[in-house]
Design goal:
The protein is α/β, with parallel strands linked by helices. It has one domain: Ribonuclease Z/Hydroxyacylglutathione hydrolase-like (Metallo-beta-lactamase, Chain A), CATH 3.60.15. Helix content is 34%, strand content 21%. It is built from ten helices and 14 strands. The chain has a seven-stranded mixed β-sheet. Strands 8-9-10-11-12 form a five-stranded mixed β-sheet. Strand 10 and strand 11 form a beta hairpin. Helix 7 runs antiparallel to helix 8. The chain is globular, with a radius of gyration of 21 Å. It binds zinc ion. Zinc ion (ZN) binds next to loops.
Amino acid sequence: MNAKTPATLPSPHYPFENVPESGSYMQVAEGIYWLRMPLPIALNHINLWLIEGKDSFTIIDTGWATDENISIWEKVASDLIGDKPVEQVVVTHMHPDHVGLAGWLCNIHKTKLCMSRAEYLNCHLLLGYSHEDTPAEAINFYHAAGYSEQQLQNYRAHFGQFGQFVRNLPHAYQRLQVNDTLKMGDEDWQILVGEGHSPEHVCLYNAGRNILISGDQLLPTISSNVSVWPTEPQANPLADWLRSCRQLSERIDDEVLVLPAHGKPFQGGRSRLQTQIRDIEHDLEKLLEFCAEPRRAVDIFGVLFKSKITASNLMMATGESLAHLHYLRVQGLVEVEYREGVGYWTTS
Ligand SMILES: [Zn+2]
């Protein structure tokens, strides 16, 4: 960790003043379209991308599975895609706002799904939970984090929600792997992979035109959630995330046009990654001081988050708090002691 106060790095620069209205699209580069879809949560939109070649389109990410979004895709099919076939649907990662309508789109356009293996398999895993009771492992996990009985009840009531916003995936897919090349439109795009926000998150990089479709791996203003989840309760995703940020910052420069899943297209991607790394290191230092006294995961929200933690963001805040604590534990800087199943974290 770096004990010095972070020096200021250049802020992102936004080359487009306008944002497409919800449900509509605009061209951002030759043959590349920015489609803005509504999201029924506090983060109220997602950016999806369409790449047009001479003879075909590629769709990148799909939106939540809602009737409203289906209507938007039907309009895009008639207004933009027209008679050209859709060559493939590419999904950056398995979160519902990205993968939700992938199965539906593949079916409607009679085309294939391209995803990384870990994202495809994890999506199937979570879809399989949709009709199951809450497992004891998950209850123990959130009890250990410090949830009250009321919060555990609420968790049980919402368990398996993933399937409400994600249509079933096709039963076969094309695997995307780090450093592979994928033809989209008429050009080659490199597959870059990040970890930490999701298991094997795909970004697509066009080196010739210096354009990066970054999904949630690189965002201009908000930071992506990096969480420990009950399926892998000892995970250290913050180490994965920091390594991925460093690797990506070595691959791109500040000139690259970043097309992110949330916010606006921007330049300054390399600096943005470095700022994020420094912010995380700074948070880890604050957390270490705070853990001079024993703390539960739910006690540290005030150190890590500016926004108020409510029932709707409690799970992500808990996962992210644990990600920070696990990172420090692996470094040998904090230790945990369980009292009646609840973890108390203290500086070593
Ligand atoms: Zn995501």
